[in-house]
UniProtKB/TrEMBL annotation:
It holds the Pfam family SBP_bac_1. SUPFAM superfamilies: Periplasmic binding protein-like II. InterPro entries: Bact_solute-bd_prot1, SBP. It comes from the Bacteria. This is ABC transporter, substrate-binding protein (Cluster 1, maltose/g3p/polyamine/iron). The lineage of its organism: Bacteria, Bacillati, Chloroflexota, environmental samples. It comes from uncultured Chloroflexota bacterium.
Amino acid sequence: MTMEGVAWPDEACADSTMGCSETPAQTRRSLVAHLARGAAALAGSGLVACAGPGAAPPAAQGKGCSQPMEIYHPFADTSAVAPGLRRVFADFASSHPQCSLQPVPIAPFNTEKLIASMAGGAPPPLSMLPPTQVTTWVPQGLLEPLEPYLKRDKLAGSDFLPPVWETMSWGGGAWHLPVQVDPNFPFFWNKAVLRSAGVNADRGPQTMDELDQAAQKINRESGGQWERLAFVPWQWYGTSNALSAMGYTHGGTFFDKERKRVTYNHPQVVKGVEWMASWAQRLGGTRARADQLFAGTNISALIADGKIGFAPLVSIAVPAIKQLSPTIELGHGGLPGATAAQAGVVWTGGWHVGAIPGSKRTDDAWEFIRWIGASGEGTSAVAQQMGGLPGHAKSPGFEILSRDSSMVAHVEAIKRAKFLPHSFYHGVSVDLAPLEQALDGARTVKAALDEITEKTQVRYEQQQAEQAQKKRS
């Protein structure tokens, strides 16, 4: 099964200059790219005993649903992903003929229409959501608990990828199932660039030291401007994603669950961000000089043209690069780490689906939720029709996507996934302006991360107090 020109709405690109909106018209099924933001702590993962290791998920069968259901989703009718989504819905309807889906696009995605529909007494049975936003949706009463359904159908935490289950099970409950999951990020390189600089093109760097050594050979300037760079770390899909990368690849954490303390100034996070800031200094004193290379272009074109040697890539970028440079040789591996043992870290985003309170159709909604998130039939439909990676660990969709050369690196990466975006763990907004200042040399990294930690802790404590007050009232 192939598809044409798909581009997922990409939360990873909200603060990026890397051209995430590119949508090359090309027959493929492997274009998936978007991150989610949110917050939560891992709750218990053993609702019930799970099926045997490696067992394929059973097909979902329609039981009692007899009416069409509305579903809110984030894809405009004009978006390239909409046709694939409609095909997935049609596949569901073919096995549930009395229970077709009526899609309601909300782009840009927000909860305003959902809240209004609930207040008016006519909510949809279903809505998609960024999974990490469970920590704001649940306190607002926007999701129906699904624990009874998971127990009934013998679905457990071990049936899902660890970070997927972490968002599903927020607060010890079960709130949503995955539609499509993004692994962030596999690390790619243009083999021709590495060979021309005398760098091993067949084995990617395992550590930041090895990456530094490769950069010394690859970086090239002319007339006071960079014409080729090995990498630009703050351009790894925006400052927020770069911060997650710096923390996780250096063994840092952003939240102490036991102490309930924000830890953006964790020593290993500081070390990782100092490494990133050091490259801003080495490449021109501020980010501006290196950023000139990105003016009017995007990461796919820069890799294809040999102007950037290494970069983490969302899956939509890979076929775009191959379209721009059909003969290119791309290597891929995991993100380098501070040590080889810390290499290959992956955190996830994506889109999930939940049942909405007040619709009086939770049983019907579960028919679709289970089908798309935990059945072989549904997860395969998402893989075939939309190029979406499953969150169900036993989905045959992984095998389907691994046959596509553009998706191999992302299939491999998602199996290493352990983390979520940095803000997930405390669940409040983070002002990264101090970090931006540090990257431009206006203040030290430690001072910037101390300020971010202090201000985020205040917001976290305010949020906790507000939620406690709501429970009491």
